[in-house]
């Protein structure tokens, strides 16, 4: 969830095409997708990020090309778009570091001062023209350009934990969440069987339900979900998770009902004033899980106010902006390394493969047009 060969945001992996399979009628498929329930919707949070890559899933169950083709069977093929988080807007802004983050991380981006950033707001799912729904998971990808030339990339979402702790668990839930023709909802027996086998997902969904979505993008908090390891100039290493906490209230909620109402509201607000989020680093302690994104850390953990993320403008996706950026979570500056979370390596590998697929496809104009809103 990019301008190099490292790949795209949450996309599904590319590869050789499977033999053709029957594809549902496009209208029926779209109705089924848009009618999926909350559990199924969460399944699309990062559907492209966790597939078979380097042996994480059974070779006889899934391969990158099969995963890509199955994903396209669900959403249809939309050339040039991300396989997940397909609907989005590019953004630009700055990160003003307080310097406090340097106490736990030697990355140059945490030195006091300002650095430019490129971002992308998005909705989960593979339909670039889907109608905005407040309960659809929202994404914020950021690329921080450090003063030393090193980049830090992160793909965040507006839920506080991830529903799965392993790539295999994600894959199993994805299959259980597939809508049944005629109802547009998951098969309740398959989902119940999945949840019986995965108590960690049941617990994560309870946490997610306790944090209902905000009115729009501007007042959404965004979470990095996975743990990373930060090392400071003295060589001390600590586990860290981070979140972007909004510094503006919701204001007057955008009227629901318009097809692009969430994005339209974001465009209008940013045409009048910048939007800001505080980058809050949470420092883990011994015993806090670093390999399980379904489990929140205690709220009593130490936090560091690392600085302010300010978005100054959004743009229709086009060549040269965030449309072509891969928000690979393992593009990290010196001072930040991956934890033992198995989701990270899977996300990185599949993002790169997915980017290759969409980079080779003809581009279709974005469904979200800034100029249309500001006329």
Automatic annotation (TrEMBL):
<dbReference type="GO" id="GO:0020037">
    <property type="term" value="F:heme binding"/>
</dbReference>
<keyword id="KW-0560">Oxidoreductase</keyword>
<feature type="binding site" description="axial binding residue">
    <location>
        <position position="351"/>
    </location>
    <ligand>
        <name>heme</name>
    </ligand>
</feature>
<dbReference type="GO" id="GO:0004096">
    <property type="term" value="F:catalase activity"/>
</dbReference>
<keyword id="KW-0575">Peroxidase</keyword>
<dbReference type="GO" id="GO:0042744">
    <property type="term" value="P:hydrogen peroxide catabolic process"/>
</dbReference>
<feature type="domain" description="Catalase core">
    <location>
        <begin position="51"/>
        <end position="372"/>
    </location>
</feature>
<comment type="function">
    <text>Has an organic peroxide-dependent peroxidase activity.</text>
</comment>
<dbReference type="Pfam" id="PF00199">
    <property type="entry name" value="Catalase"/>
</dbReference>
<keyword id="KW-0408">Iron</keyword>
<feature type="active site">
    <location>
        <position position="85"/>
    </location>
</feature>
<dbReference type="InterPro" id="IPR018028">
    <property type="entry name" value="Catalase"/>
</dbReference>
<keyword id="KW-0349">Heme</keyword>
<dbReference type="GO" id="GO:0046872">
    <property type="term" value="F:metal ion binding"/>
</dbReference>
<dbReference type="InterPro" id="IPR011614">
    <property type="entry name" value="Catalase_core"/>
</dbReference>
<feature type="region of interest" description="Disordered">
    <location>
        <begin position="1"/>
        <end position="23"/>
    </location>
</feature>
<protein>
    <recommendedName>
        <fullName>Catalase-related peroxidase</fullName>
        <ecNumber>1.11.1.-</ecNumber>
    </recommendedName>
</protein>
<dbReference type="GO" id="GO:0005737">
    <property type="term" value="C:cytoplasm"/>
</dbReference>
<dbReference type="InterPro" id="IPR024168">
    <property type="entry name" value="Catalase_SrpA-type_pred"/>
</dbReference>
<comment type="similarity">
    <text>Belongs to the catalase family.</text>
</comment>
<keyword id="KW-0479">Metal-binding</keyword>
<dbReference type="InterPro" id="IPR020835">
    <property type="entry name" value="Catalase_sf"/>
</dbReference>
<dbReference type="GO" id="GO:0042542">
    <property type="term" value="P:response to hydrogen peroxide"/>
</dbReference>
């Amino acid at each position: 969830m990019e301008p190099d060969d490292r790949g795209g945001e949450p996309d599904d992996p590319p590869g050789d095409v499977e033999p053709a399979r029957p594809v549902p009628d496009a209208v029926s498929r779209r109705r089924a997708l848009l009618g999926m329930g909350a559990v199924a919707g969460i399944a699309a949070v990062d559907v492209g990020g966790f597939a078979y890559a380097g042996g994480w899933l059974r070779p006889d169950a899934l391969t990158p090309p099969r995963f890509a083709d199955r994903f396209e069977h669900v959403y249809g093929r939309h050339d040039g778009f991300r396989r997940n988080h397909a609907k989005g807007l590019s953004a630009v802004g700055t990160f003003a570091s307080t310097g406090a983050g340097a106490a736990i991380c030697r990355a140059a981006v945490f030195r006091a001062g300002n650095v430019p950033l490129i971002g992308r707001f998005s909705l989960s799912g593979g339909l670039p023209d889907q109608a905005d729904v407040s309960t659809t998971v929202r994404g914020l990808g950021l690329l921080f350009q450090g003063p030393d030339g090193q980049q830090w990339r992160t793909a965040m979402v507006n839920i506080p934990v991830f529903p799965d702790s392993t790539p295999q668990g994600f894959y199993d839930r994805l299959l259980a969440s597939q809508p049944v023709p005629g109802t547009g909802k998951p098969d309740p027996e398959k989902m119940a069987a999945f949840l019986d086998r995965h108590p960690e997902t049941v617990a994560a969904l309870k946490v997610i339900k306790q944090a209902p979505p905000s009115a729009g993008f501007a007042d959404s908090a965004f979470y990095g979900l996975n743990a990373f390891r930060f090392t400071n100039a003295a060589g001390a290493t600590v586990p860290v998770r981070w979140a972007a906490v909004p510094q503006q209230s919701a204001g007057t909620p955008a009227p629901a009902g318009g097809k692009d109402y969430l994005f339209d509201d974001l465009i209008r607000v940013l045409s009048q004033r910048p939007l800001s989020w505080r980058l809050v680093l949470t420092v883990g302690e011994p015993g806090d899980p670093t390999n399980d994104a379904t489990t929140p850390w205690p709220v009593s953990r130490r936090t560091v106010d690392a600085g302010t993320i300010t978005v100054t403008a959004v743009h229709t996706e086009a060549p040269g902006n965030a449309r072509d950026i891969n928000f690979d979570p393992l593009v990290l500056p010196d001072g930040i390394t991956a934890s033992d979370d198995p989701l990270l390596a899977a996300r990185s590998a599949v993002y790169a493969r997915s980017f290759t697929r969409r980079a080779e496809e003809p581009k279709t104009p974005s469904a979200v047009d800034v100029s249309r809103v500001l006329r």
